[in-house]
Amino acid sequence: MSRLVIVANRVPDPKEAGPTAGGLAVALKDALANRDSMYFGWSGKTAPQTGTEAALHRHGTTTYATIDLGHDDYKHFYQGFSNAALWPVLHYRLGIARFDRRDFAGYQRTNAAFAAALAPLLKPDDTIWIHDFHLFLMAAELRALGCKQRIGFFLHVPFPPRSVFNGLPHAEKLLEAMEAIDAIGMQTEDDSENLRAALIAVGKGDVALRVGAFAIGIDASGFAKLAAQRAEAKEVKRLRDSLAGRSLAIGIDRLDYTKGLPQRIAGFGAMLERFPRHRGKITFLQVAPVSRGDVAMYRALRRELDEGVGRINGQMAEPDWAPIRYITRAVPRPTLAGFMRMARIGLVTPLRDGMNLVAKEYVAAQDPADPGVLVLSRFAGAAVELDGALIVNPLDPDDIAEALDAAMDMPADERLDRWNRNWAKVKAVTASVWCRRFLSALEGTKDVADAGQAEAQPA
Ligand code: ADP
Ligand code: G6P
User: Fold this and answer.
1) What is the pLDDT of residue 16?
2) What is the Cβ-side half-sphere exposure of residue 345, based on CA atoms within 13 angstroms?
3) CB of 272 within 8 A of CB of 238?
4) 383 CA to centre of ligand 2 in angstroms
5) Into which family does the record put it (predicted)?
């Protein structure tokens, strides 16, 4: 089997996908474990100039190859074009995107620098797989340097309708650069349709044929086992004891405005207002480690949440009960798995999300003898598969309130039936299934459009 070269801006710590690493890093960990591979990307450090020669570290079957980002590239490529322009636009939030020509220049420069540092490390029969929105231009840059290897690309985030995407300055340049890619993977069929339409509109109908939907998954049985093992761990027991018999609702997200956190908190507050019999009977724990904390919109969100949580707790708390517990520090994954298992309700209400792995993790973490209820945004990619969840409009606090009320009262047989439906889907499309499907499309054993969609229906 040829070597697999994964390229992503964020390179996880090989020992553990860190607490704020996000879904991409978590999903790829599994993919790398069983094959001779290289993982190329940003070291996570900044330096006066972006690196030209990667630092190499071997871990298991994988060589980690990383470069530092220059201060200017960190500012314009990472904070600027990637996180203040592309991220909001791809999540349908054109109105809050910030555009600056220097940011796009930094984006082009950094994509080219990544390609230049990777090219000398490549072997002729490598399979190259580039990930996510930071690196739309990299395949074209590799081709310009003469690379002939197969190149795949996976977008972990949504792709909006063309009318939204075209609000992004230089949108056409990103689409045209996709010509260099052999297979393009998206999370859902809607995302694929949107990208295909955008490509066709710029005269790239040939590239549109290489786009397919490949829903990403988790290591389902591994996570289930972890959650079961941690159920009696010290920190988990400490949380259980502190609840004094109350039900737990849990939210776990990077502190990101796409996750719908202020709306979720408002929904929880609305539930306590409208259904007062639940007061004192439920505690909502939101774990939201700070992410991209030096981008302006993220700082503003943090202030908004501090205020929102404080307001609801101030209004509703009793001397012996606070409705919301809110943690912005990182919590180790095993502990989170144990917390998820204990939670009667999992609240996953992003305003827009490529997939949302937390939704799948919550399902996997449940005790099959007494599973909790997933409340899931219709705007998460996961909603396509997880139809056993209570599906809500995350923008509507009353909808969230009603789902919370229904979840609190849901009889055990309905909980079990809904969980069984979800668990079947989570088990069927794991991280390794996702990886195999995409790579079989890229490596030519399957047609791209078919490989994803045809198998997306679990058996
Ligand atoms: P995103 O990729 O936008 O961050 P996902 O839900 O797809 O969203 O993936 C997030 C991943 O990061 C999940 O695997 C989740 O368990 C993990 N994660 C999120 N918050 C924390 C946290 N506080 N501590 C540890 N892991 C976390
Ligand atoms: C999401 C994105 C990833 C990104 C992660 C964490 O999962 O899809 O590409 O790596 O968030 O964000 P960060 O900016 O810290 O890499």
Assistant:
1) 64
2) 30
3) no
4) 21
5) Belongs to the glycosyltransferase 20 family.
- Per-residue pLDDT tens digits for 119-150: 999 999 999 999 999 999 999 999 999 999 99
Specify whether the backbone of 256 is left (phi greater than 0), alpha (psi in -120 to 50) or beta: beta
Kindly report, residue by residue over 191-248, the tens digit of the pLDDT.
999 999 999 999 999 999 999 999 999 999 999 999 999 999 999 999 999 999 999 9
pLDDT tens profile 55-67: 999 988 899 999 9
31 CA distance to ligand 2 middle (Å): 17
ipTM of the complex: 0.98
Catalytic (active-site) positions: 156, 353
Dist. CA 222–CA 11, nearest whole Å: 22
Q: Ligand 1 atom 14: the closest Cα is on which residue?
A: 23
**For residues 29-50, average pLDDT:** 89
CB atoms within 10 A of CB 420: 12
Whether residue 351 has its Cβ less than 6 Å from ligand 2: no
pTM (predicted TM-score): 0.96
Q: SS3 of 395, please?
A: coil
DSSP 3: P
Ligand 1, residues at Cβ distance < 6 Å:
19, 21-23, 26, 252-254, 287, 289, 330-331, 333, 336, 355-358, 361
Residue 458 has pLDDT above 50, yes or no: no
d(CA 287, CA 297): 19
Residue recorded with tokens 């309700």: 345
Residue 2: DSSP 8-state: P
- Ligand 2 atom at minimal distance to the Cα of residue 24: 7
